[in-house]
Amino acid sequence: MKFTGKMYSIFSGNINRIGWEYDQETKQGVLRAEFKNQIQYDYFPVSKEKFSEIFQEESKGTWFDLEIKKNPSISYEKVDDEDKSL
Question: Of the candidates 54, 16, 55, 82, which has an alpha carbon nearest to the alpha carbon of residue 7?
Answer without folding.
Answer: 16
